[in-house]
Design a protein that fits this description.
The complex is a heterodimer of chains A (601) and B (513). By secondary structure, chain A is α+β, with helices and mostly antiparallel strands. Chain A is built from 15 helices and 29 strands. Classes of the chains: A alpha+beta (601), B alpha+beta (513). Chain B: Its main location: cytoplasm.
Chain lengths: 601, 513
């Protein structure tokens, strides 16, 4: 969830009144955004690095930190928040956005070359005329680009925004893809002219830009935008040129968005112009740009398209979902508070016609409209009913079996532990003196925590790690776990499956093998499984000496289970090998058992 | 040496004849010896515990001569020794005196001069008086005989001169107790099977009992599992069926795509989700037509939706991962519900729940683990309303002991509306988030084949956080995982969410009020 910092004074001025923290928090809560904190850049810096490192150059103007839902790009700046809250309170009408063609009828052109298809295939553009920048709205303008880049643009991979002082450049503009060494310009806020290869090296360790370089770095061609005089505008998605940079004195702004996802490119451009056309001499007007794909990949057209999308929503659907009995007029009144212009349909009494503005790209279905009705009505004002759904409760049989085993193990005097299911490859195999057969363990791709390499195939490593953390506990230590392991299995839809197992250990000054053996007998007896003669045919279990590298030589056995004439090994028990104890940092003899629980279902 | 029986008999007979013992120091054994202090204490305690006697402690100071003091008592003070060494007629040479008396010569001379007993005559010492009284010796003798001295100043002086040292003496004044008797009865410490058999418990007297319980050697359940059990009971009480969540490995399809979560969503980034190295992908989807419907609704819309308008790729859906939420299982169950509905020809409402592990590729700290438990509930029925969801949440959280909740609009890619559930926390003096809830999107349900009037409400919350609040833990690693303290597992109390949880979760006053 993105957090936006807005200037408190600017916001309350726009909203036409002052608020206490609690008052404003309630307003935000009901609208669906979350007021986190009333602070200042200085206060935040002091908290982060300490008072001694923060000087007076850091502003102490109060700001409000507000959490915004991830799909509301229109609320990522002061302009969007103040506008929506005014409309929500019925104090303003939502703005109507207009595109205005210049008096001479000639649009600026952005021509897209075929080569761009290989790296960043789409571009859209727009112009804001006669903008009046102030320090505050200029900062908002920069911040919004930053928020859009981090969120909907997926760190500039999907969309990158470039903004330019139109009076420093001349159209038509061309969007091309060239070899890095053939691109030369002075990057934003630099003095040195460099080619794109040099530029990559120059920004390699840049804290802000370094992370974006890999998006294009290894490509044979880089995306680049020129004006008609071969003046570079930007090298998306990395950086603009210094030549066309915006200042507080800029009057006319050229905005281009290059994208790998055209839908998102359009949303980003729409959001930019919808927010900042507010500061044009004629507010909420935008000059469109003609976008031409030389290879006709996309039909030629003008951007942005600021017409609202007309859609409908059914009255009975809205009432049925919300549990209300609203008339079409009441629904429209509520929707208007959410910046959705709505009118009852003239043809269908059961329908409202809704104009979804370009700022509301989150509206996909009438369920989104229904939600806005519910928010405007107030979630906490909705009638409370209890669903009269009559169903029968039922445990998942394997969980019920596992709980039965857990209770029996605890009744036998063992304490339950709950280790993690992720562990290192060594813990799962080498530390247990087992070889990885290579085809059983589920392995993770890019874990942030380095020891999370596999999903455990045995409960034993986690139990032994728990013992290691409890070496000071008085002896004997008796612990167990009943839990899931996972193994690869290509017959399954997910090419793997969980296996539920039981594991218990006994640690003391002597090995306590007979204790573990006794616990095994008890547990199986409680699971209604009897000891039987291995040479007979009766269903039940028996044990047989085995040499298992995890255990001390001649001190372990396999557990055999015969059900309906079929025999399989379900687990083993024994005294843990001293090398296993050493690997897990244990200094007292320990006996262990582990077996599959699922055959007892 | 007197045995303790001898001492017992002595004390009891003395009491019998004299009525009381003013001071146990006066007791002497048959052969006239004093009785060791520790032996007396042992016997007195034993008799007192049987209420045969009572006693009070007498404390007094006694002054004993040090070795030097004893020496003075035996052979006189240093100054007297010096006086006696001086020949009444000829005196004694100073060098001779030192030879004769050693260390005493120097100490004794000074005192003898001061007392004007002797004087210097050239290099000789001569007597100044004819005879002396050695008061220091007399004082030492008095102390030896009486253990003290009639003049406190003298005692102090002798203590300072290290001739005398003070010791504390403890003795006892003894009287008959309520059960005084000359005969000592053997008291039993415990009721035995023999006493029951021969009836001796009726006459047997018992020692006074000191209460001290022994902790039982039972087993213990993990606190997280105890809270899990409470949640399970709530779900069963409300008629929910448990979902098969025993599959940690999930496909991106069920974890994201089936839930109408677009493929560019940040949660699908390797930075947040554990994708698998092996097995990395699976194309074993059982229902290719359903996969096609999901592709269609993502890229071009359908069921009244405009969709996300992007190029949906099967390769993304095939990527395997460790499930990021149990909703992946819910989506699979709702798909099965749609299949059953089709097979049966009619819809049957369903209520599902699960409590199981989910995974996030997070950096581990005190509040974040890469794996944790999620509690999830799902209700599917025709024409469910938001009011039903709110009403049901009130019932559910009431059973958890949380009586006062409210709802905030929120965003979730697969529910619309989405509501965060908040509860007032008087301790923190603010509304705290307890969980998430919402109505699944039609794009998800209708692509599965459910009718448009089938609505599904769902909610979820973490298992660890309420458990940490309940048991007062502030580090999640001390609850789940191997860093847990076994003593904590063995000592934490049973869990009754309705009785305790509310108070701990929302603060005492809210529930008491």
């Amino acid at each position: 969830m993105p957090t936006v910092n807005v200037d408190k004074e600017e916001l309350y001025t726009a909203l036409g009144r002052d608020y206490t923290f609690d008052e404003f928090m309630d307003l935000c809560f009901n609208f669906g955004i979350e007021l986190e904190e009333d602070t200042s850049p200085k206060e935040m810096a002091i908290r982060e690095v300490g008072a001694h490192k923060v000087d007076d150059s850091v502003s102490d103007r109060p700001i409000l930190k507000i959490d915004i839902p991830a799909n509301r790009y229109d609320l990522l700046c002061h302009e969007g928040i103040s506008r929506s809250l005014l409309v929500f309170q019925g104090k303003a009408k939502p703005p109507v956005f207009k595109t205005i063609v210049p008096a001479d009828g000639k649009l600026q052109k952005l021509i897209i070359k075929p080569e761009t298809a290989a790296i960043r295939p789409f571009a859209v553009a727009a112009i804001l005329r006669n903008v009046k920048f102030t320090e505050l709205n200029y900062k908002n303008f920069i911040d919004l680009q930053d928020k859009l880049h981090m969120n909907i643009c997926r760190k500039r991979t999907l969309v990158a925004i470039g903004t330019h002082d139109l009076d420093t450049i001349q159209g038509p503009f061309t969007y091309e893809a060239l070899a890095p060494k053939d691109i030369q310009f002075v990057p934003l806020n630099q003095e040195k002219n460099m080619n794109a290869e040099e530029l990559m090296t120059f920004y390699e360790n840049d804290k802000h830009l370094g992370k974006f370089l890999p998006i294009i770095r290894d490509s044979p061609v880089y995306p680049i935008i020129y004006d008609k005089n071969r003046q570079v505008l930007s090298l998306p998605p990395i950086i603009n040129s210094n030549h066309s940079k915006i200042t507080l004195d800029t009057k006319n702004v050229f905005i281009e968005c290059t994208a790998t996802d055209l839908t998102k490119g359009k949303i980003v451009l729409n959001t930019m112009v919808a927010m900042f056309s507010e500061y044009c001499a004629e507010p909420f007007t935008v000059e469109p740009v003609e976008v031409i794909y030389e290879d006709n990949r996309q039909p030629a057209g003008v951007t942005p398209d600021l017409t609202s999308r007309i859609t409908t929503a059914k009255v009975d659907y809205i009432n049925s979902c919300t549990g209300l009995k609203l008339s079409p007029d009441e629904i429209c009144d509520l929707l208007n508070k959410m910046s959705l212009e709505a009118t009852p349909s003239k043809e269908d009494k059961n329908e409202v016609v809704v104009q979804v503005p370009v700022t509301r790209s989150d509206v996909l279905h009438q369920c989104d409209i229904m939600e806005d009705v519910a928010i405007a009505y107030g979630f906490n004002n909705l009638p409370h009913t209890a669903p009269s759904v009559s169903t029968i409760g039922k445990p998942y049989p394997l969980n019920k079996l596992a709980d039965t085993a857990r209770i029996e193990l605890a009744l036998a005097g063992w304490s339950e532990v709950s280790p993690l299911t992720l562990c290192s490859h060594d813990e799962n195999f080498a530390f247990l003196r087992q070889k990885d057969p290579g085809n059983i363990a589920v392995r993770l791709a890019h874990p942030k925590t380095i020891e999370y390499q596999v999903v455990r195939t045995s409960l034993l490593p986690g139990v032994l790690k728990t013992l290691k953390e409890n070496k000071k506990h008085s002896l004997p230590i008796k612990v167990f776990e009943v839990g899931d392991t996972a193994i690869k299995d290509d017959t399954q839809e997910r090419r793997s499956r969980n296996v539920r197992k039981v594991c218990a250990t006994y640690s003391n000054k002597t090995s306590g093998l007979e204790q573990i053996h006794g616990l095994l007998d008890r547990t199986l007896q409680m699971l209604h499984c009897q000891p039987v003669d291995k040479n007979g045919t009766a269903s039940g279990y028996w044990i047989q000496d085995s040499e298992n590298p995890t255990y001390f030589p001649s001190r372990s056995a396999d557990i055999y289970l015969r059900q309906k004439g079929e025999t399989k090994v379900i687990g083993s028990f024994g005294i843990l090998h001293p090398e296993v104890l050493e690997k897990f940092g244990l200094n007292f003899p320990t006996s262990a058992m582990e077996f599959d629980l699922e055959p007892f279902l | 040496m007197a045995t303790s029986e001898d001492i017992q008999t002595l004390i009891l007979t003395t009491l019998d004849t004299q009525g009381a013992i003013e001071n146990t120091d006066s007791l002497k054994t048959a052969d006239g010896n004093a009785i060791p202090y520790l032996a007396v204490v042992g016997v007195l305690n034993s008799l007192a515990s049987k209420e045969m006697i009572t006693y009070t402690t007498i404390e007094r100071d006694q002054f004993n001569l040090t070795q030097e003091g004893n020496d003075i008592a035996d052979s006189g003070s240093h100054e007297a020794k010096v006086f006696n060494a001086v020949d009444p007629v000829n005196g004694i040479a100073i060098a001779e005196l030192a030879k004769l008396l050693g260390a005493s010569a120097k100490i004794g001379q000074g005192k003898a001069f001061k007392n004007k007993w002797i004087k210097k005559d050239g290099d000789k010492l001569v007597r100044e008086v004819e005879s002396i009284v050695d008061q220091t010796q007399l004082d030492a003798l008095e102390i030896r005989n009486t253990g003290t001295h009639s003049k406190p100043a003298t005692l102090k002086d002798l203590q300072a001169r290290k001739h005398v040292e003070k010791v504390k003496l403890i003795s006892y004044k003894v009287a008959k107790g309520p059960k005084f008797s000359l005969k000592i009865e053997k008291q039993a410490t415990d009721l035995t099977a023999e006493m029951l058999a021969d009836g001796s418990w009726k006459t047997q007297t018992f020692k006074k009992y000191n209460f001290a319980g022994n902790p039982p050697e039972g087993g213990h359940l993990h606190p997280l599992m105890k809270v899990r059990e409470e949640f399970r009971k709530i779900f069963f009480e409300l008629g929910f069926e448990e979902m098969p969540t025993n599959k940690y490995v999930e496909s991106s399809f069920w974890n994201f795509d089936a839930l109408f979560q677009p493929q560019q969503h940040p949660a699908r980034d390797a930075h947040d989700t554990f994708f698998l190295l092996d097995p990395a992908t699976s194309s074993n989807f059982p229902d290719k037509e359903y996969v096609q419907r999901v592709k269609e609704v993502h890229s071009h819309g359908g069921y009244g939706s405009i969709g996300y308008g992007y190029d949906w790729k099967i390769e993304e859906a095939e990527k395997l991962l460790l499930r990021t939420h149990t909703t992946s299982v819910s989506s699979n169950m709702l798909y099965r519900l749609a299949q059953e509905t089709k097979a049966r020809g009619s819809f049957k409402p369903a209520k599902f729940f699960s409590i199981d592990r989910v995974y996030r590729n997070e950096t581990v700290d005190a509040t974040h683990l890469a794996e944790f438990h999620q509690v999830e509930g799902v209700i599917a029925d025709k024409n469910l309303t938001l009011g039903d969801l709110i009403g049901f949440m009130e019932v559910f959280f009431e059973k958890m002991g949380v009586p006062n909740i409210k709802f905030k609009p929120a965003f979730n890619p697969y529910t619309e509306p989405s509501m965060e559930i908040f509860s007032w926390h008087p301790g923190l003096e603010k509304w705290v988030e307890l969980g998430n809830s919402g109505m699944f999107r039609p794009e998800m349900l209708e692509a599965m084949g459910l009718d448009p009037d089938v609505r599904v409400i769902a909610w979820g919350l973490g298992l660890e956080r309420p458990t940490m609040i309940k048991y007062g833990l502030d580090n999640i690693r001390e609850l789940l995982g191997h860093k847990v303290d076994l003593d904590m597992i063995q000592s934490n109390p049973a869990c009754r969410l309705d009785k305790k949880m509310g108070k701990e979760l929302v603060g005492k006053d809210a529930v008491d009020a």
